[in-house]
């Protein structure tokens, strides 16, 4: 039978192609999932430990099982000299060693300045946490490698000179500036270790020491030694590690990079399985299920086509068991060949993605990491699932006698789905709804402070909601045989009134509801997941945007003593900045508020309308007059409500430094005095409150008074502030562009700082968009497999209706009308399943959004018109294309021949 099976496969090679494609795509998806998981896991590990460069061993202080230092007293006193660097570097097997040092610096050139972060250099470029993309790393004295963005901002390049000065950032650094430091290279930060600073500079050892405030690099405090050890021979590497350990300071030990990486990602792992693997393998299960449905339909087409051939084999002596084995053998060979091709396609796809910079465009660094799972699992999937999917077809091939098989026979499956399946499906849906409902109820109680148990077990509540959604969807899939044909029957009944082609399509869909349901379910799965992810992403962006807006009432703020009027005007002209307000400020301390003290920043404004132009807050009915001070309702630092006594009013008294300090008095008014060179004056203000948030996180609150108090000398301005409102949609620019341009405007002075939620919002949207692109791309594979299933269903339908199609042709139906009937059938299959998938996906997306994002603010429940519309249009177009080949087969055979064959 093996030779006969091979001949049958050769004869049906063209019909095997759709089945092979379905298997190839499914196995390629599985292989790509493993490979992508490997790459993501590797990228995550490297990103979490990117500050280690490419060191394969790290020397750090020993800790006990509780994470505490095992021996006391040496950490803060360990210097570079204590590490015996010269002896370690001379140790056999050590290819490089670098002390991990860093410092905040201000780099200036030609009147421009940039604040950022710097790390010490290394003779071994592999041990640097950033990459040298141009020039070389600093080696000699007075050398620096700058981030590309900093070099562009300062207008310098390799060979130019800059000044490097320390920034204390609140610490006790007493370093000195180093002038005329030569730029020898440019750096990039591929893993975003220093993204908050725009990258990191690399300084020569003498510059690091000077900026840090020590006489010599050997006197700097050191906490970590990075090592590049030859590990080609494990035994030799261990001897090197032991020898290096003997040269380290007391309480220090050496551990491998792999152990450090494992510790770094432990919070993202469970049972030694990384989060990316668990997450992406769920899509592998999806591909397995969808492809199984498609393969089953495909083999029904093959067996239906060979029914006469199989019957002839029975008449010449072939046994049922032999035919059964032949079909399974064919399925196994097809599965093996297609699986091998699928693995090759998956490996090539991931290699292309990781080596062409596509991942870098999404903000991730990835490389191809092969593993045995990427080869063994897809082949096992291809073989097992293909054979299992062909079991029904194999039984169909042997279920009739040779005489019955030689007669014309309809393959229509008129059997009804079992009551057991219906019962299980309904119970599964009920259980899922109950689980999801309980999860929502518990989370609601937690958010309202009513359910403390849910607060302690949020992870369990989240898993409960996920399990509930999964059970609901599983129940809908199990019962699809019942509700999907009914739904489709109602839609098709309306369409059938559009002409004879639509009527024929209506009859064809009703002919085999179980197979139609199977095909619709395969498409339903993919569309539901796309809609779920699109809805979740849209909800995430809108919810987090509103949460940030509610926590930060001003989009962007520039503060500092060096705000120039020319720079303020330039900032107002930046594309994306919708409104600005330049105001004087003074620092005060309030006493008697909530029974304690509170630090305040007073900001002078002309009127409420000017303030409302740059603030996201409801200021209706609020005025800032000569006798009032506007205060927020909540502290920025603790979030506690700011309250005053029933008769208490804010009172200001003289402060020790420039500005004013405040306390309360019970006379129904407020008085204040300010100091400026010994001259004082008093004022009486009435506190008014409005709900605005975190204008500045450096104070308990920011209060607004009329600018006339600064003009007439009641209050002395100690600094200035520029408040900016950002509107990127109208301007057609990104948040990152606006933020970077504003930073560039004020780069002339290191004392000017740019704060606000814009940077956080830009980073959040970048992450969401990147993940959305990735996940939709993965799920699109499942949709493609399902659409192949639509083509297979139509092919089987054409084979079943050979006589019917011939009869229709004989009584006058044209080829075009027959083609249109199949096109309508395919279109209805895809659109009905697609619309149901969009509805389900939106509901699941809303559930997931509430369970995750309600912790950060009021959840937004959007309907993603754009993505859902694209999915439906693509499904419709693909379904129409899928109908082309079955239609060609239907109209290719003349009616007389078709009737004779039937």
Folded structure, characterized:
- By secondary structure, the protein is an alpha+beta fold.
- The chain has five domains: 1-62 and 271-409, no CATH class; 101-221, no CATH class; 429-478, no CATH class; 479-552 and 757-902, no CATH class; 553-756, no CATH class.
- It is built from 30 helices and 25 strands.
- The strands form six sheets. It has an eight-stranded mixed β-sheet with strand order 22-17-23-16-15-24-14-25.
- Helix 10 packs antiparallel against helix 12 and helix 27 packs antiparallel against helix 28 (865-882).
- The longest helix is centred in the C-terminal third of the chain and has 43 residues, at 758-800.
- It is globular.
- The model is unreliable at 65-73, 169-173, 267-278, 408-416 and 653-681 (pLDDT under 50).
Distance between the termini: 27 Å
Mean pLDDT: 75
Biggest sheet layout? 8 strands, mixed
Assembly status = single chain
- Summarize the amount of helix as a percent range: 40-55%
Query: Low-confidence runs (pLDDT<50, min 5 residues)?
Result: 65-73, 169-173, 267-278, 408-416, 653-681
Which shape, going by the Cα principal axes? globular
Q: Give the number of domains.
A: 5
The secondary structure category is alpha+beta
List how many beta strands DSSP finds.
25
Gyration radius from CA atoms, angstroms: 36 Å
- How many helices? The count is 30
Estimated share of beta-strand residues: 15-25%
Transmembrane segments: 12-36, 278-303, 323-352, 372-391, 422-441, 461-487, 516-538, 771-799, 822-847, 867-885
Region (Disordered): 663-684
Membrane topology: Multi-pass membrane protein
Keywords: Cell membrane, Membrane, Transmembrane, Transmembrane helix
